[in-house]
Amino acid sequence: MSTHVDQPTVLFLKELERVLQDRKEQLPKGSYSTRLFKKGIDKIAQKLGEEAVETIIAAKNKKKEETIEESADLLYHLLVLLVEKEISIDDVVGEMIIRSKK
Hints:
Elements: H1 7-26, H2 32-39, H3 41-60, H4 64-84, H5 89-100
């Protein structure tokens, strides 16, 4: 398992997490994230599930670009869910590190 971490990637995910936390607190008008947070966990979870299915279908259809696009949607909606549940990306990565050592 590679221990190399692409710093810009990590920084982007942390910044997106921060932006989503801000959206949840401030609820600015016109923001898609705001709409999700206002609709609550059921809608957020539903969107995450939809994106997971769309990612699977794109991958099974062997469509690389579509798989990348759907994976981006999936990661975004996962981060929204994590912010809603007050779970940090650091918590998730920490769990992955623990599991990788087993």
